[in-house]
Amino acid sequence: MPHRIDRDLFRWRVRAFARLMSAVLVLALVVAVPSALVAAYQGYPQVALMDTLALAWILAIWRFDRWSHTTRVVNFLAMMFFVAVGSIVSVGAVGLCYLLAIPVIAVILLGQRAAYVTIGAGALAMIVLGLAGYSQLTMGDLARDSAVGALLFALNYACVGTLGTLTAGSVLKGLSRSLNTAGAVSASLEQERTALRRVNQEWQLTSAALAGLHDMVLIVQAVHGKTSHQPIIFANAAFERHSGYRFDEIIGRSLHTLHGPETSTETVAALSDAMARYEPASAQLVNYTKAGEPRWVEVDIVPFASEGGPITHWVAVGRDITEKRQSAESIRKLAFYDVLTELPNRRLLMERLGALTDKAQRGEGIGAVLYLDLDNFKSVNDARGHATGDALLKHVAGILRDTVHRRDTVARLGGDEFVVLAEHLGDDAAAATAAAVALAERVGTALRRPIDIDGQVYQSSGSVGISLPTRPEQTAQDLLREADTAMYHAKAAGRNSAALFETTMLAAAENTLMLERDLGNALDNDEFALHLQLQVSPDGQPIGAESLLRWRRADGVLVPPDVFIPIAEKTGLIVPLGTWVLRQACLSWLRLSRAGHALPLSVNVSPRQFQQADFVDVVRSILAETGVPATQLIFELTEGLLVENMDATVARMHVLAELGIRFSIDDFGTGYSSLAYLQKMPLYELKIDKGFMRDMPHDVNGTALVKSILAMAGQLGLRVVAEGIETREQAQFLASHGKPCMQGFLFCRPMPLGELISQLEAALPSHHQNISNTVTVSR
Fold first, then answer.
1. Distance CA 612, CA 317 (A)
2. What pLDDT is attached to residue 775?
3. Of the candidates 730, 756, 757, the residue with the CA atom closest to the CA atom of residue 744
4. Nearest of 746, 749, 744, 750 to residue 773 by alpha carbon
C-alpha cells in the first residue's frame, strides 16, 4: 500500500507542477517581458538581461516535457534561485520574495529534504553576497558588507524559510495521510466492488443454471416451528413447466399447496419431522399440478445457512418420476399379476401362501386354500373360441372376488385353474375346516349362476379342493399340492363338488405319480406284452381275437389296464403306446397266419391316438412295413370320441375304411348311442359292454337292452360281439336271441400269443362242436 500511495503522491506532484508551469509561463509573458523593457528603459540593463534569461529558461522547462519530473523541478528551482540572487544583487529586498518561495515550492514538488537544501543554499548565498558586498540588503546602520548584517539576514531567512517548509510539509503530510486513507478506502471499495461483481456473476450463473435444469427447484424460507408456514420464495422454470403454476402464483405459498388426496400423509409427516430437526430429507410422494393431475415426484430437501449462522432457507429439488413409477408398476403387475384377469399369479400367491402357513405355525389363526378348476371349460373354449373363453374366465374372476372376504386372495394359476386363499377362518382346526367347507359351497353356488356373454347364456361350475395348514411341517408348496390333489378327487367324484384333503389322497396321488414315472420307462424297458382273447361265433368257432395290453413292472407287479391306461391317456404316453400295440398286433397276425389261424384282430384305439394328425400315415406305414392286409384289422373306438369330434372322426374313419380297416364301437350302450351317428359311420360291428351281460338273463332291464341292441344291429346289418360271457346260461340265451358273436372267460382268457396258438392247435378237433355242448377252446 505505501508504494501505491507514493505513486499517487508523485502523480499528484507531476500534475501540480504541470499546472504551475502553465501559470508561470502565462505570468512570465505577462510580467517578465514588460519588466525587462521597463528595466532597460530605466537604465537597469542587468535586470532586463536577468528577466530575459529567466523567461528563456521557463520556456525551455515547459518545452522539454519529456524530462523527468525531478529534472524539470530542479531546473525550475534553479531558475528561481538565479532570479532571486540577481534581484538581491541588483535591486535588493525584491530578491527575498523569490528566495522565500523556493523552499515552499521545493517541499511541495520534491519533498522536505529538497526544501531544506534550498534553505541552506539561500542562507549561504545571502552570507556570501553580504560578505562580498554585492548584496543590496541593508539592516539599520550596518554596512552592506557587514558580517553581522549578512548573518542576521541569513538567520532570519532560514527561520522564515524553515517555518514555511514545515508548514507546507505538514500540509503535505496531511494530504499524504488523506491520500493514504482515501487509497485504502478506494482499495476496499474496489475489493468489495469486485467481490460484489463476482457474487452477481455467480448469482446470474446460478440463476441461469437453475433455469436450465430439468429438475424442479424451490427455495423455501425457514420459519421456526413444525407447524409454521414456510413460504416459497423461489421457483425455477422447470417447476413452472411441470406444475403449471406461474412464478407469481406459487411465491409466498407453502409446499402443502402441492399435496392432494393421494399424497401419503406418513411421507409428509416424515418430511416435516426432518425439517423440524433441521436435517436433510428425501422421499417419493404424489404432488398435484395446478390442473389437479397427480404426479409422482422424488424430492430432496436440504437446509441452507450462511457461514456460521442459523438455517435460513430450505432448498427442495424434485424430479418427476411418474413414468418411472408407472413402468415399475407395470413390471410389478407382469411379475405378480395375471394379465387377463388382473388377479395375483402363482408367484404372488406363493408369497402370501407362505405368510399364511407361517401365521398358522405361530398360532395366529388358521386359513385355508381352495383350489378351483372349472368343469367342461374346454368345451366352451373349443365351441365358442378363445375370446368367449377369456370372457368367461374374467367373469369367474369377478365372481370369486365378490364371493370371498376382502382380506382373502383370489389368484389365477393359468388356464381354468383358480386358487382362493382364505385368511383366518378360525383358531382351531375344526372351526377353520367348517368355515372352509362353507366357503367352498358359497363359491360353488356363485359359479352355478348363469353368465351372459355377448347375449349368450353360459352355465358354469367348478370342482374345488380344500386344504388347511393343520400340520406343523406343512409348507406352502405342500398346502397347494394337497388342495390340487383334493380338487382332482372332486372331479373324479362327478365334478361340480368340493373335496376336503385327506392324507389317503396324498398316498394315492404319490402312487399315481410313481406309476406315471414307471410308465414313461416301461416301453423302453420292454415291460409291455400283448395278450389275445378269442372271439367266437354263436356255434363256438373262433372268428377273431381282441388285442389286450398287459404291463408287468420291473419289480414283477402286474398293473391292471384300468389303472395304467387312464394315466397313459392323461400323460400322452397312450400315443406311442398305441402305435406299439398296433405294430405288435400286426406281427401277431403274421404268426397266426403262418400257424394256419389267420384270425382278424381287434385293436383298441385311444381317442387321443385317433385324433393325432399323422394317425392315418402311421397306420399306412405299419401296414406297409408288416405286409398285413388291412381287412384283417378291426379298430375299436369308444362312443365318447364319436360324439366329441363327429365330423372329423367320421371323415378319418372313411379314409381308413378305404384302406380296408373295419370299425367297431366298443362298450356300446354306455355312452351317447344314437342311430344318427351310427348311420354316418362305416361301421362293421357293435360290442355290447360286459356290464349288461353280468346279471343276464335274470336282470330284466339289462336283458331288454341287450335285445334292443341286437335288434337294432340286425336292422343296420352290423355284426354284434357280446363281451364278458362267463356262464353257459348267458351263452345259451344269446344263442337263442340274435346269435351274436361272443367273447369272455367262458371261451378263452386273454393269453400270450404262443399259448393261444398252442390252444388253437390242441382244440382243432373240437371246433365243430355245438355251443350247446359247452365245448370251449380254453377254460
1. 66
2. 36
3. 730
4. 746
CA neighbours closer than 13 Å in the CB half-sphere of residue 751: 18
Q: First CA to last CA across the chain, in angstroms?
A: 138
CA–CA distances in Å: residue 202 to residues 190, 195, 247: 18, 10, 22
* Spatial separation of the C-alpha atoms in residues 390 and 458, rounded to whole Å: 13
pLDDT digits (tens, 9 = 90+) for 733-767: 888 888 899 999 999 999 999 999 999 988 765 44
Distance CA 297, CA 239 (A): 11
Euclidean distance between CA atoms 381 and 300, whole angstroms? 54
Q: How far apart are CA 282 and CA 737, in angstroms?
A: 95
Angle between helices 2-27 and 45-63 (to 10 degrees): 140
Angle at 234 between CA 233 and CA 239, to 5 degrees: 135
Reduce the DSSP state of residue 412 to 3 states and report it.
strand
Angle between helices 45-63 and 69-90 (to 10 degrees): 170
**Cell of residue 718, nine digits:** 352290423
3-class state of residue 421 by DSSP: strand
Q: What is each CA distance from 655 to 633, 638, 651, 659, 660, in whole angstroms?
A: 15, 18, 7, 7, 9
DSSP-based three-state secondary structure for 368: strand
**Which 8-state DSSP code applies to residue 468?**
-
**What is the helix, strand, coil percentage profile of the chain, to 5?**
55, 15, 25
Q: What is the pLDDT of residues 95-143, one digit of tens each?
A: 777 777 888 888 787 887 888 888 888 778 777 777 777 666 665 555 5
CA distance 136 to 87: 9
Burial class of residue 323 in the structure, from the number of CB atoms within 10 Å of its CB (0-12 exposed, 13-18 middle, 19+ buried): exposed
Determine phi and psi for 537, rounding to 5 degrees: -80, 170
Three cell numbers written together for 392: 368367461
Contact at 8 Å (CB) between 752 and 721? no
SS3 233: strand
Query: Contact, 564 vs 606, CB < 8 A?
Result: no
DSSP state of 557: P
CA distances from 743 to 426, 530, 636, 723, 740 (A): 58, 17, 14, 5, 10
The span from the CA of 165 to the CA of 108, in Å, is 9
Cell, residue 32: 517578465
Contact between residue 54 and residue 82 where contact means Cβ atoms under 8 Å apart: yes
**Radius of gyration over every alpha carbon of the chain, rounded to an integer in angstroms:** 64
Contact 740, 725 (CB under 8 A): no
Structure-block grid coordinates of residue 719 = 355284426
Distances in Å between the Cα of 363 and the Cα atoms of 422, 426, 428, 682 are 16, 10, 9, 67
Average pLDDT of the residues in 56-77: 83
Orientation angle between helical segments 112-132 and 147-212, nearest 10 degrees: 160
Rounded Cα distance between 458 and 378, Å, is 13
Query: Does residue 777 have a pLDDT over 60?
Result: no
Statement: residue 70 has pLDDT above 70: yes
Rounded to whole angstroms, what are the CA distances from 455 to 381, 382, 447, 459? 17, 18, 18, 13
Which 3 state secondary structure label does DSSP give 648? helix
Residue 216: beta bridge partners? 318
C-alpha cell read off for 29: 509573458
* pLDDT 10s digits, 159-176: 877 887 787 777 777 766
Q: What amino acid is encoded at 185 in this protein?
A: V
Instruction: Count CA within 13 A, CB hemisphere, residue 27.
Output: 8
Q: At residue 16, what is the residue type?
A: A
**pLDDT for 576:** 94
Residue 165: Cβ-neighbour burial (10 angstroms; 0-12, 13-18, 19+): buried
Distance CA 669, CA 684 (A): 16
Mean pLDDT of 77-87: 78
Higher pLDDT, 332 or 472: 472
Residue pair 445/454 in contact (Cβ under 8 Å)? The answer is no
Pairing of strands 685-688, 719-723: parallel
Residue 115 CA to residue 164 CA, distance in Å, equals 10
